[in-house]
């Protein structure tokens, strides 16, 4: 089977890129897999891609490329939804190249990895192939304008895959998609190629973009309370982003300069997690929680806010981690202190986390996708099975004309009945 992913930019760093690369590599064990990157801003991808996976960039956005001199490059996209957060990065040139690629591509399965790319699949993807939308953000994190744009397109796809059961339930309730299968399949995280944490270091780690939604200010406030009781413990925050200056000021105001460290982004993050004894997540919302799974794969228990939607479906309370109320610095500090003060319990929890996280390994996640492909093919075969009597196919472009003809015929028949 040939499988093609549509990805925003395979040359950057981000959770969607990592999980797409992971899934593509696992599927490449049994299938021909390709990743189509809408744009390319550097020579080689920042993340390692399996050599069995073909990478196809559509538009080269580097300043000296021929694509940037194409007149369509400077014109805003029309097919990509205007309410999508990345719309400003999309051009008519991408519209045209995606349409042409999908028109002539021989893949059996197409998988979009963000809302605008799912719309491309709905508009231009060949009907003979399975067309599957992935949602790496949650339903409620999309604007109401984007949700209104997406609904009619999503109804024409074969399936919508969310990363959590909770988000799948929200889609079923708030965006009814008759004829489109809505299913939850989590992201995958491979086993790190290094020994797991032994749980003895006096380090709490956190990782992610330094953005308001991650609430690292809350984590730093909580750690000020932790440091007052356990001054020999340190917090290391890995990531870059717009909140760096504000967080650095907060660390200074709280007198935590030697205790809380903003150390910048690291990729891969697993070697840093393996040096920690606890990983903390303080977010207001997480569509899935890749960081949580990455920590657990390193044998590290996680203390996380019980935010919508992912953490509660990943962490098994008091078995491999702890959940605390969203926005509660005192509860976060108390949970961290609980693990800090119980080294044997912390190490047992880390061992359990390592075991439980195996369900997120790429192989079982790839098998769930393969099962979905098979179920969608069977469902399509049942729909296309001819009924008794005369059966014929009508091209999709004929539908409006047939509808008009039927209406005219009905009117004529009514008039004939009224005629004496």
UniProtKB/TrEMBL annotation:
Positions of the Glycosyl transferase family domain: 197-353
Domain of life: Bacteria
InterPro entries per the UniProt record, alphabetical: Glyco_trans_1, Glyco_trans_4-like_N
Signal sequence region: none
Domain Glycosyltransferase subfamily 4-like N-terminal: 13-189
UniProt-recorded Gene Ontology molecular function terms: glycosyltransferase activity
CDD domains hit by this protein: GT4_AmsD-like (cd03820)
Keywords: Glycosyltransferase, Transferase
Protein name as catalogued: D-inositol 3-phosphate glycosyltransferase
Species of the source: Streptomyces gilvosporeus
Organismal lineage: Bacteria, Bacillati, Actinomycetota, Actinomycetes, Kitasatosporales
């Amino acid at each position: 089977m040939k499988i093609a992913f549509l990805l925003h930019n395979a040359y950057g760093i981000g959770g969607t890129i990592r999980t797409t690369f992971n899934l593509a590599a696992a599927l490449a064990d049994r299938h021909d897999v390709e990743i189509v990157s809408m744009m390319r801003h550097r020579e080689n991808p920042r993340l390692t891609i399996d050599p069995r996976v073909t990478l196809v960039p559509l538009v080269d956005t580097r300043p000296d490329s021929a694509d940037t001199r194409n007149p369509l490059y400077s014109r805003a996209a029309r097919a990509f939804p205007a309410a999508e957060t990345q719309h400003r990065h999309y051009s008519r040139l991408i519209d045209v190249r995606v349409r042409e690629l999908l028109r002539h591509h021989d893949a059996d399965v197409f998988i979009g990895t963000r809302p605008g790319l799912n719309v491309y699949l709905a508009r231009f993807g060949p009907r003979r192939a399975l067309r599957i939308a992935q949602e790496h953000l949650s339903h409620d994190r999309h604007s109401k304008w984007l949700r209104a744009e997406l609904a009619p397109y999503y109804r024409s796809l074969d399936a919508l895959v969310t990363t959590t059961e909770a988000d799948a339930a929200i889609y079923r309730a708030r965006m009814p998609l008759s004829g489109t299968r809505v299913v939850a399949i989590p992201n995958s995280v491979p086993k790190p190629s290094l020994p797991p944490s032994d749980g003895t270091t006096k380090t709490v780690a956190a990782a992610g973009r330094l953005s308001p939604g991650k609430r690292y200010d809350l984590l730093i406030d909580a750690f000020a309370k932790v440091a007052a009781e356990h001054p020999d413990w340190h917090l290391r925050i890995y990531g870059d982003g717009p909140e760096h200056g504000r967080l650095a000021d907060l660390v200074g105001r709280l007198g935590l300069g030697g205790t809380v460290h903003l150390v910048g982004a690291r990729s891969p993050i697993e070697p840093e997690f393996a040096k920690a004894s606890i990983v903390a997540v303080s977010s207001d919302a997480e569509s899935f929680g890749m960081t949580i799974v990455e920590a657990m794969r390193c044998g590290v228990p996680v203390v996380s806010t019980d935010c919508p939607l992912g953490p509660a479906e990943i962490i098994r309370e008091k078995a491999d981690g702890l959940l605390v109320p969203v926005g509660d610095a005192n509860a976060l500090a108390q949970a961290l202190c609980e693990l800090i003060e119980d080294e044997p319990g912390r190490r047992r929890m880390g061992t359990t986390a390592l075991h439980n996280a195996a369900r997120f390994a790429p192989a079982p996640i790839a098998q769930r996708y393969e099962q979905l492909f098979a179920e969608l093919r069977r469902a399509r075969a049942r729909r296309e099975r001819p009924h008794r009597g005369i059966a014929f196919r009508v091209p999709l472009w004929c539908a409006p004309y047939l509808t008009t003809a039927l209406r005219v015929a009905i009117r004529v028949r009514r008039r004939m009945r009224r005629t004496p």
